[in-house]
Fold:
Amino acid sequence: MTDPSRAAARVLRLLLAAAVAAILAGVFFGGWFQLAGLWTIVAGPFVVLVIVSAAKPRSRWFAAGTLALALIGLLLAR
Amino acid sequence: MDHLLSLELFGIGAAAGAIGALLGVGGGIIMVPALVLLVPLPFTQAVGTSLVCVVATSLAGSAVQFGRAGIETEAALELQLYAAAGAVVAGLAAPWVPTRMLYLAFATLLLYTAWRSWPRPGAAPAAPPVMRRATLAGTGAVGAGVVATLLGVGGGVIFTPILHLVLGYGFHRAAATSVYIIGITAGTGAVIYLARGDVALAAAAPAVLGILAGSGAASRLAHRVEAVWLKRGFAVVLLYVSARMVMRGISGD
Structure:
């Protein structure tokens, strides 16, 4: 089984590369790419949260609570 | 936004990313004043933009620390829940909090950070009794979430002491774990500001690229710089920025 910390590190590097590519594309193709890049960055910690908590039953509840709070914040802000 | 300003934001982002990677903080204490004083952005937009930058700092640092298995994930996941609760409340309340009060609160936070950053000889403060640790850590994390989201910082200046002084982790491990926690805290706040349209895309994009470049370079150079001199320089910068923010808070511009 893959170590969650190493998997998180790999996913983070991929997300960062995707975000940088989108932000740079925004210079030529407009603000939508920049917005996509910034949302990719903001989503990063939550993706990692799911990966590192998956292997630990007690931690899953904390992770689920954190994700629920972020979702509530997003819905109320809109 | 003109190219010169984009270059300046890239440079400031690089400095913030480097300091974040070296000291275990998010760099918001540099980004918010820079965005308010240089661009200039309204305080609420500067906070939203800075939160996105803090997430970028956290991601770059966490990618390195997860690879080295340097993060206490169980403690981080627990503290993140409390911090996210504080962040949601503060993010939703932010438009109704008076701007002048935010400037002065931010200046106070900078002064406290400068005091904490200045290296001094002597014994570390005694850890609190075990039974009070969980309550202290949880309460501190909620407070950190509120402060971080209202002021556009990551809260690393609060999380690192919680992990080191209250929960008893070694300083390097506490700083590494703090870098990861600030990503969720700032991310929860950033989601709210992004959804509300309170993030300046044109300012955030070059700053984020600068942060990623700066934190990457700093991670490689970290062992060559003496921490004492780094902390002293950092404290002096904080004092200067704090004075500027106090003047702005008093004048109400």
Observations:
- DSSP finds ten helices and no strands in chain B.
